[in-house]
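Model it.
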Amino acid sequence: MTQAAALRIAFAGMAALAVAMGIGRFAFTPLLPLMQGDAGLSVAAGGYLASANYLGYFVGSLLATRWHVRDDIAVLGSMLIIGIVTIAMGFTGNYPLWLVLRLIAGIANAWIAIFAFSWCLDRLAVLQQPLLNSMIFAGVGAGTMVVGALCVLFTAWALSSPQIWMALGVLALVLTAALWRTYRGGGDVPHVPVRPRGGGALWTREAVLLVFCFGVSGFGYIIPATFLPAMAKAVINDPAVFGWAWPVFGAAAMLSTLGAATLLRGFDPRRVWMACHFVMAFGVVVPVFSAGLAAIMLAALCVGGTFMVVTMLSIQEARAAAGAHVVQITAAMTAAFALGQILGPVVASLMLDAGWGFSSGLVLASVLLVVSGAMLWRGQPRAATR
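Modeled.
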């Protein structure tokens, strides 16, 4: 019974994160090349739409630390919102309204990320099933992969971008209905531990390092995560080919997260986080030196295969280093990550408008990732988990 309850909880978290990230955030990425053709959307305008979503994520993360809402209500309500605003994206071609809808989706996205993690991790801790934590984190990659593959399929069926937006919104609502009973029933876990608060210094050097480096990872991964299919389209203008860049990104994110929980046991988490920054930096800058589709796919593997491992390890490091301030530090890291996501597409779009192309933004992101990785090396590694 315990194992069955733990699997049900982990799957609920995985599915909620798949809706939040796969649809609420990253459905826009594979749809951007189609929206360029259907609505005449420029890449720069697409960058601002992406940043509106990331701004919503930033606002949502700040609101989550101030509003006291039950975890299950926050998750289910946010999933409903994502379904509704995603459907609405297909009903209008008004760009300012698109900005508002993407902003709302970003707020709901943040609430699912924060409250679903809270709901699931607390219950898995009670059931003493920590290895299933990686299954929850894998929801981001799974959602990205599935939505990316669906977009390729829908494009092959000659569906327009508005029709695909509506189909994905309906999918979000169906998944919400499927998960409703699990979240409202509490996952059949009778007791949830109280989260520690207060005591000791909050803004230590270690805390600042964690917040800064996680923020840099948000800036570093988001530029290819926003523009990867558009970059692939620039190489090969065939949706059946360039469309697969995004499912590859998602598959790498899912498999790396699932594998990290077992393959990286015994390694110092701080050093693994550092190594992920270096691998991500390489993946981000590869398309600068090679214009082929192989370089785009290599970038998808390197960036997709590290950004969720970084997220998982950073939360572990926050729990280990923050002590009684774990809630505050985790919220600050989430906000820094969101801020990095906001700045990434904006900076890339500004550089694109200035005639500098994608390369300048990718080089800047790569340099920042290398610098932050070096800072993690000089930080205070903690004992490896065994």
